Amino acid sequence: MSKRPARPRRGRRPSGWDPVARWYDGWVGKEGSEHHRKLAIPSAMKLLDPQKGEHILDIGCGQGVLAPYIHKSSAQYTGVDVSDRLLQAAKKHHKGKGRFLLGDARRLYRIRGLAAGAYDGAVFLLSIQDIDPLEDALQSAAWALKDGGRLVIVMTHPAFRIPRQSGWGWDENRKLQFRRIDRYLTPLAIPMKSHIGRQSGKTISFHRPLSAYINGLAAVGLLVDALDELPTYKKASGANAKAENLANQEIPIFAALRARKLA
């Protein structure tokens, strides 16, 4: 039987996407960005494999780009987000395709309308790296899942895509494009764009090594049974296209994993 999680440790408050909600909704939109549509959503749906009548919880749902996909599968969708403005966009974009609740991903047990052990599946779709502490978010997700339920995490690949600490390089002698990684093992809180057009606001990307996710899931009784690593769909052109395309296919942009709750 699922128990209420222990009181979360003191940590960073939710970074809050309200100040950048208009910009973010304009970029991602009703159907999701190209990265959502071509990589993140197909991978999440493959691993989640929602079935008719199941209850699916989308944690950090933003403007609800996953809702129509879950609805089409005949499963029932609930999205949770800390940003009221993004939830208003979700309700506008996806009316009738699920319900959207305001609340903190680290404290799902405080959200009216959610219950312990009520969900067959849960998903962090490109949201887990916006949430800190990681341990509280994973414990909260485990609280919401039924025994045997599955949690899917789709995230920018923590080994290769670290904001401000990774990038592409070109080896002229070898005619080779390579991925440069400056830091990996140390957890980092990385401020992202603080001024977007005329909007002000700041979001934080929380980098952790892959081991933090695997061990963190195990600590709350969620054992990984699948991992996909997704390269970009984009194709380069120009003088170095062959080398660039090879690098793009070898070095993934996203990691998608599934873990199941022990009965």
Describe the protein.
The chain is an alpha/beta fold. Helices cover 27% and strands 29% of the residues. The chain is built from 7 helices and 13 strands. The strands form 4 sheets. A 7-stranded mixed β-sheet has the order 3-2-1-4-5-13-12, with helices on both faces. Strands 6-7 form a two-stranded antiparallel sheet. Strands 8-11 form a two-stranded antiparallel sheet. Helix 5 (134-144) packs across helix 6 (210-219). The chain is globular. It starts with 20 loop residues before the first helix and ends with a strand.
Rough shape? globular
CATH architecture of one domain: 3-Layer(aba) Sandwich
So what's the oligomer here? single chain
CATH class division of one domain: Alpha Beta
Which consecutive residue ranges, at least 5 long each, have pLDDT under 50?
10-15
Contiguous helical run count: 7
Number of strands: 13
Helix content: 25-40%
Report the span from N to C terminus.
9 Å
- Biggest sheet statistics: 7 strands, mixed
CATH superfamily of one domain: Vaccinia Virus protein VP39
Mean pLDDT: 90
Throw out a few tags for this protein:
263 residues, alpha/beta, Rossmann fold, seven-stranded mixed beta sheet, two-stranded antiparallel ribbon, globular
